[in-house]
Amino acid sequence: MTQDAQNRNSAPMKSAFVTGASKGIGFAVAQALAGAGYAVTLTSRHQDEVEAAARQIGQGARGVQCDVRDPRALQQAVDAHVAAFGGLDVLFVNAGLGRFANVTDLTIEQWQEVIDTNLSGAFYTVKAALPALKRRGGYIFTLSSLAGKNPFAGGAAYNASKFGLNGLSEVLMLDLRQHGIKVTQIMPGSVATHFNGHTPGQGDEWKIQPEDIARLTLDLLAMPERTLPSRIEVRPSKPPQK
User: Fold this and answer.
1) For 211-231, how does the pLDDT look when each residue is reduced to its tens digit (9 = 90+)?
2) Which Pfam family is one of those matched by this entry (predicted)?
3) What is the C-alpha to C-alpha distance for residues 54 and 43, in angstroms, rounded to an integer?
């Protein structure tokens, strides 16, 4: 056996942790990473859905029930991932939801649910994963939105959460780059997912597809170490004319 072959055999398996991964973008990203040779943990609030998603991916993927609003549960999930796979290389912060209403009608409970999931949940996820990422460097992706720079009527909670996530992501990039950790915020426009109760189907062909974001993720991982695309805006190339 050559020295190169010995080094490959002894190299630790790369692994990824993806939140909100039972369907949509999170599932597509987890599936693509598994196909690229990463050991993957998928998380979701719904145990039956995330376990089914992991079985569909196969290749040793793990499905773990976890609510990103719970820092303790997140830490347990990340620790279990590291114990299973020996480390962590990619963190894809995807879990999110939307509640849309005129600010007059938006309830405090709806506001808290969105901010706690989309913004605080992202912070908790990164905090749980940082010790493992720092041990051997890695990559953090945050799934934001064009709504993080373009406010719209009825979007008080959602816009605020994504504006905040963009700010958090930029600070993470600045704080962590000297630790060998890259941070990229991905900001899609319309994506054909189950977001906000939508069922993807006919009529969604013009939208960004979840697998497009997954391909983008793999492309970013393949970038040279010296180069960091810190913010990526993604739009449908030809949306319907209004």
Assistant:
1) 999 999 999 999 999 999 999
2) adh_short
3) 9
Domain spanning 12-194+204-234 has what CATH number?
3.40.50.720
How many helices (DSSP H) and strands (DSSP E) are in the chain?
A: 8, 7
What's the rounded Cα separation, in Å, for the pair 85 and 230?
Answer: 27
Answer whether 140's CB lies under 8 Å from 176's CB: yes
CA–CA separation, 124 vs 70, rounded Å?
8
141 contacts 184 by C-beta, under 8 angstroms: yes
Average pLDDT over residues 17-45: 97
**What are the residues whose beta carbons fall under 8 Å from the beta carbon of 77, sequence distance 6 or more?**
17, 41, 43, 64, 66, 128
Question: Any idea where the domains of the chain sit in the sequence?
Answer: 12-194+204-234
Residues with active-site annotation = 158
Residue 2 has pLDDT above 80, yes or no: no
Per-residue pLDDT at 5: 38
Pairwise CA distance, residues 173 & 102, whole Å: 33
